[in-house]
Amino acid sequence: MNTDRDADIDVPAVLALLRAAAAADGVRPVSEDTELRLQHGSPGGSDLVVRDGGALAGYARLDDGVAALVVHPAHRRRGLGTALLRQLLDLAGDRPLSIWAHGDLPGSAQLLAPHGFERARVLLQLRRDLAGIDPDPRPALPAGVQVLPFRPGRDEDAWLAVNARAFDWHPEQGRMTRADLELREAEPWFDPDGFLMAWRGDPDAGGELLGSHWTKVHPPGDAAEEAVGEIYVLGIDPGGQGLGLGRALTDLGLAHLRDRGLGQVLLYVEEDNAGAVRLYESRGFRRFAVDVSWRRDPAR
Length: 300
What we know:
Keywords: Acyltransferase, Repeat, Transferase. InterPro entries: Acyl_CoA_acyltransferase (IPR016181), GNAT_dom (IPR000182), Mycothiol_AcTrfase (IPR017813), YpeA/RimI_acetyltransf (IPR050680). This protein is α+β, with helices and mostly antiparallel strands. It folds into two domains: 2-123, 3-Layer(aba) Sandwich (Aminopeptidase); 132-262, 3-Layer(aba) Sandwich (Aminopeptidase), CATH 3.40.630. Helices cover 29% and strands 31% of the residues. A twelve-stranded mixed β-sheet has the order 1-2-3-4-5-12-6-11-10-9-8-7, with helices on both faces. β8 and β9 form a beta hairpin. The radius of gyration is 20 Å and the shape is globular. The model has no long low-confidence stretch (mean pLDDT 93).
């Protein structure tokens, strides 16, 4: 067994490892952001791999104090997860370290709790059927407000500014950069027609972006055997709150996903965001899966 830090990563081999773990565990082992950074590279991050008898057996990545860690199903219970964790702890030094456990599987607690990690954040995945969604919603929009599809190459700056304000409390979403956005625009799933923008006035003549609903379609085999839609990012500018735009954009986005022939839609929401959880559950969403962020703070 050997562990390599910042080695020349065999990206296809790591992606194959991630697919094997997802098939065995029934849950994606790392976040979308981690996978994008793996595929396209990201300055400042650290990649780790562990081999067992020459075979790639585990992978970890550390970005700005947040890590992901996965061991191939065929190489588990051989100390490889602990080897990767020790490398992450060495990289973090005396700084806090968070590790996401997707699916909240028992092995995560067994690995992390003995090393001083505690549950810090819980992210819920909610799902509902699309069969009951109004296929032609006609929400009443405020005077002068229109909903238009995202225009690549023109709307990025406006969206990033609103996103930062709408999610200034969120440790990941509120920090999205233009590079992060463009990575997603280059993905095969990106569909500007499913990225709905609520503008007050003409966007080319001083119009103001008040909010947006960015939908996503997971291909078959990603979130389920069949394709599944997602409320990917739904954000309203603080200046646009109280106008009913959240509900209007939600209804329009769900109708778009239903029109794509999809049967289900998912979303992610923080467990402690009680108001949002109640709202989504009142709209027919039910809890499907749980992700947990474990945190270790040596200064405590």
